[in-house]
Amino acid sequence: MEMNNIMALRLQEPSRQVLGLCAYLSEMPISKLLNPFLTDGVRTMLGALIVHHIDRKLIFRRDSFGSFTEMLLTAGSEPIGRPAGWDPASMRDRVPRVLFDFFEMMGELKAVPRMNSTFEGITLEMDASYMDPAAIRSLCRSLGEAYISSGSSLDRLDYQRSGELFFHQMVLGFYRANAKGTAKALTTQLYAHGDFLEKLSRELKDLYSERTRAGVVEAIVVSGTGGKRGRPPKKRSPVAALPAAGQPTQRTA
Predict the structure, then answer these.
(1) Using 50, 70 and 90 to split pLDDT, how confident is the model at 234?
(2) Angle (CA) 48 50 55, round 5°
(3) Which of 102, 125, 129, 230 is the S-S candidate for 85 at Cβ 3.0 to 4.6 Å?
(4) Distances in Å between the alpha carbon of 153 and those of 150, 157, 228?
């Protein structure tokens, strides 16, 4: 095994002991046990980071991102029978604003009437109640997978591509949650009108850029020599040159 395929993880007790017990019970190495969960987790994490970084109204902070990922980790762990649905009042501080903006822009573009006139044998309604924490986690997972599958660079975050993929995944999720019709119609119409959904996704992205007055953003280098993580640094204002050693400084009244 190549050394660059080995990664060490620091675990607190009793997690380390639990892994040992699982390995013993399954008669499998720990790395093989963890691999499916790590594969799923890194895609979900990538999608969650993309959502945060494309949100033009959000200043990335580790604590807010930590609160968001905590919500994703607890998704699906609610007691059986607890009503699902998105409670904006309780989630507004934990969810990036761009998720709320999506539904506002869908209404602004009259997306639902356009979809109803395009898809045959299918009806849709404007409904955002499906966007509970479990759905947001699924969105992040799909977004991360789509970013990787598209061949986008993993050395730097491509904002342009990330935005396109985000709105496309949101449109697909909206269709799958709200479209009503036969199983055959739902599948065939989705593939038959893929170009329409792509066009709608681009319109949403362009409208979002217009609403937030987003400028051109450079890709973020996240690995390599001298690379820095996070958003590109703001340009500093020009600073007057300091006088050379031994030269007097001028003072203003």
Answers:
(1) low
(2) 105
(3) 129
(4) 9, 7, 16
DSSP β-bridge partners for residue 123? 180
> What predicted TM-score, i.e. pTM, was given to this entire model?
0.74
* CA dist., res. 115 & res. 20, Å (int): 52
Task: Quickly count: other Cβ atoms within 10 Å of residue 174's Cβ.
Answer: 24
What are the DSSP calls for 129-198, one per residue? TT-SHHHHHHHHHHHHHHHHHTT--SSEE-HHHHHHHHHHHHHHHHHHHH-BS-HHHHHHHHHHTHHHHH
Instruction: Decide if pLDDT at 248 tops 70.
Output: no
Could you tell me how far CA 60 lies from the centroid of its own chain? 13
CB neighbours of residue 171 within 10 Å = 21
Q: How high is the pLDDT of residue 1? A: 47
